[in-house]
Design goal:
The chain has 478 residues and is an alpha/beta fold. It has a domain at 372-472: GMP Synthetase, Chain A, domain 3. Helix content is 32%, strand content 21%. The protein is built from 13 helices and 21 strands. It has helices at residues 3-12, 25-41, 56-77, 79-88, 109-114, 147-163, 185-195, 207-217, 226-236, 259-269, 383-390, 423-434, 437-444; strands at residues 129-133, 141-145, 171-175, 198-202, 221-224, 249-252, 272-277, 287-289, 296-298, 303-308, 322-328, 339-345, 347-348, 361-362, 367-368, 373-375, 379-381, 396-406, 409-418, 452-456, 470-472. The strands form five sheets. A nine-stranded mixed β-sheet has the order 4-3-5-6-7-8-9-14-13, with helices on both faces. Strands 10-11-12-15 form a four-stranded antiparallel β-sheet. It has a four-stranded mixed β-sheet with strand order 20-19-18-21. α2 crosses α3 (56-77), α2 (25-41) packs across α6 and α9 crosses α10 (259-269). It is globular.
Length: 478
């Protein structure tokens, strides 16, 4: 980013309008954005002394206003929605309450993959950046962002980094190895630059190179994939005092973070590990934990979050688990309204012990419905379930699971990467996995065989971002 461009971007950022004494810059930024939008529309706000706060009721009016405006924009500019809403007989002015959202048809990922241009609100020449994602499903989707979209994302990232405690003099190390389809470092490094934070980026899978870059950059904060940060911790922690680096916070993103991995990282580095949830379709960064580590604060100024029953499509009560549905409230490039994510989540109403008063929190996603596999008598298993167990063993660097079938029994074979293979470690892993309720019940019913473990040398598993940890090799099994 050259100096002139940086100057104009800084002037556009609402995050720079948040008062310095604001205790929660992320919520303060959302309040300013909502208040400015509502005032322009002629809406009479409830009285507040400070511009960096707003009532939940007023904020929900902002969200519904922006949803209606996005529906109008989508009807006018995006062929997919023009046809969809015409066929459904739904108009933007019909959406006056949260319950009215249930009348609006869903958007599905396969539709986006099949006809990407039909979701775009501008011509391809007006797109400043396109990110390509296959996510965990392998279905390639291309998401377009205008310059305005990118500034909005830099704004929210800058607010989130301030919210977790970054200040001038701090430096963020962006650790995304083997990333090629999209580059999250672009937005993160831009957010650091406009707020005067330092940053460094390294995509090398060589953990020694990562450590060298961190030392040279005088890193104070780390953001990256938990699987890779754990790998760095498991291998370098045996020869280096990681606490001596004095890292203040580690931010885990792009993959589910198990509590066992969180605990191992916090013990090794001597700092809090905060979780982030995001998706490329919504601009990567969408929700982040505060120091309470009890749910993720959501970017509700740019995204409307709903949790639905995946079978009925109806809203579920606060705290009840369901499928996450998201709507971009300010997107100019790729427009997505009521987009089904397949993520299994629940949400919490405000307030939060950290002091945030109106922002809803996302409870840590348990996993994706399209990453769940059934074993035994239909028990659902998913990577996070086994992460919690296997990464309690500090000698486990990484693992992959193969599910096969022998006769009528399901067979779970764990390929484990470790520096210290041996019978004792194998027995501990088998015992821990067998104690998982979904597995123990299947063993008791004689529908799952005793888990198996195969050791491989460290480095034999080629690291790749968002690698599939579970491979189902059974034929025609539901």
């Amino acid at each position: 980013m050259n100096s002139m461009k940086a100057f104009f971007v800084r002037r556009m950022l609402l995050s720079r309008k948040v008062p310095k004494d604001c205790e929660n810059p992320l919520e303060g930024w959302m309040a300013i954005k909502a208040r400015e939008t509502l005032k322009k529309s002629g809406f009479k706000l409830q009285d507040y002394e400070r511009k960096d706060t707003i009532s939940r009721e007023d904020f929900e009016e902002y969200q519904l206003l922006r949803f209606r405006e996005q529906m109008k924009y989508a009807e006018a500019e995006a062929p997919h929605y023009r046809n969809l809403y015409k066929d459904a007989g739904i108009r933007p002015e019909d959406i006056r309450t949260y319950e009215d959202l249930e009348r609006v048809p869903f958007t599905y990922s396969h539709e986006l993959a099949e006809k990407q241009l039909a979701f775009c609100g501008v011509s391809a020449t007006k797109l400043a950046k396109e990110f390509t994602t296959t996510g965990t499903t392998g279905t390639r989707k291309r998401i377009g962002f205008t310059s305005g979209d990118l500034v909005d994302k830099v704004d929210i990232i800058a607010s989130a980094l301030s919210n977790i405690g970054m200040r001038k003099g701090d430096s963020l190390h962006i650790m995304f190895p083997a990333v090629s389809a999209w580059d999250p470092s672009l937005l993160m490094s831009a957010a650091c630059k406009v707020l005067g934070y330092g940053s460094s980026t390294c995509t090398d899978t060589d953990i020694k190179v990562q450590m060298e870059v961190m030392r040279e950059a005088k890193t104070t904060h780390i953001i990256g994939l938990p699987s890779f940060i754990y790998r760095v911790t498991a291998l370098m922690g045996k020869e280096t005092d990681l606490k001596a680096l004095k890292i203040k916070k580690i931010i885990s993103t792009s993959e589910p973070l198990s509590e066992s991995v969180r605990g191992a990282l916090e013990d090794a580095w001597g700092c809090k590990v905060l979780d982030v949830w995001g998706m490329t379709e919504m601009g990567l960064a969408c929700a982040v934990e505060c120091d309470e580590q009890d749910g993720l604060h959501t970017d509700e100024a740019n995204i409307l979050f709903e949790v639905i029953d995946p079978e009925t499509g109806k809203h579920v009560p606060p705290g009840q688990e369901g499928e996450l549905v998201v709507s971009g409230l300010n997107s100019q490039g790729t427009i997505l309204l009521r987009y089904r994510t397949s993520d299994t989540v629940s949400m919490q109403d405000p307030p939060c012990k950290c002091g945030m008063s109106f922002n809803k929190k996302l409870n840590k996603p348990r996993g994706r419905m399209d990453m769940q596999f059934k074993v035994g008598m239909g028990y659902k298993v998913y990577p996070l379930l086994f992460d919690e167990v296997l990464f309690k063993e500090s000698d486990v660097v990484e693992y992959q699971l193969r599910i096969t079938k022998e006769g009528y029994r399901d067979v779970l074979t764990f390929e484990v990467e470790t520096l210290v293979p041996g019978d004792e470690l194998k027995e501990r892993i088998i015992s821990m996995v067998s104690d998982v309720r979904e597995i123990s019940d299947g063993i008791a019913e004689d529908l799952i065989d005793i888990p198996r473990v195969e050791f491989v040398e460290v480095g034999s598993m080629e690291y790749s971002a968002k690698a599939k940890k579970i491979e189902d090799l059974r034929e025609n099994y539901d």
